[in-house]
Structures are given as C-alpha cells and as structure tokens.
Amino acid sequence: KYEEAQKAVEQGISNKASQVYLTPGDLYIDMHHAFPAENCIRSLDISKAVHTVEYDVDGVHFTRTAFISKPNDVIVTHITANKPGCVSFGMKLSPAMNASVSYTDNSIFFEGRAPYADWQLGVWQDPSHYMRYGTDDQKSGMAYIAEARVISDEGEIERTGAEIEVKNADSALI
Q: Nearest-CA neighbor of 111 among 99, 125, 119?
C-alpha cells in the first residue's frame, strides 16, 4: 500500500505547482560520531519555543538545542558536548528549487525565486504545465535567500565541496 500511495502522491499531488509551497531548502547536519546513541531525550518547551535533543555516545553527552527568532529572521541550532573537542559534524544546505549557491569557509548561501503561474484567466488549465521560473521582477515568483553559517568554539571549520565540516570543537552554533 505504501508504494501505491507514494506513486499517487508523485503523480497527482506533487507537481510543479506545488513548488510555491516549498520551504527554500533543507539543512542537513551529519554528526561524525559512532551510533547508536544511548539515553536519547527529546523535549519541546512550547512556552520558550525551544527544541532540545540530548544523547550519549561513547561516554560523551551531546546536547542539540534549536529555536527560531522571528525578529532576527534566524533559526539557531547550538550543539555542545560535555567533553572538549568532541563536536564534529558536516553541514550541507540544499535548495528545494532553482537557486544559485555560493560558499565561504564557514557558510553556505543560496538565493532564487519561486516559480510563478502563467495562467489564462477564465480557462481551466492543468497548473503543472503553467509554472515558470522567471528572470526578472515582472515575470517571477517571490524571491528568497537562505544562509547557513557555523561558528565554533575551538576546533576547526573548513569547506569540503558542498559541505562545511566542523572538527574537534567544544561547541558549535549554526
């Protein structure tokens, strides 16, 4: 049943028109330590809008805390370990739509425009055939930008291809 449902979604629900509802992209964080983790605890403090994940790996206690600040237009993730030099991970930011991507030593940045609907009013049309990516303000969807920047306490930060690597840090802020 799962395969049938997935096929129905891909054929009938997901099409170019659905791109106007996409988030700009996805942030991937790949922790560089052994798994499985033990003593996993996930919590959400609604009153403070803070999400926390805690777990232990090889005698090290890791904490990942995340929150969103609308006034500052940021999503923040803070990763810590109870032992120095144990925070190591790779970070990748992947755009969901057409976007230009650029990098610095500690950040990934992309910008693009959502598609727009090129409709003929009063005529029924399949929306998947009328979604266009424009190149100017007159013929394009909403502009968007995203940046993932990492700051570490101690350790090293380096870019390897499309990924930012944090190695042997005490903590890191994304």
A: 99
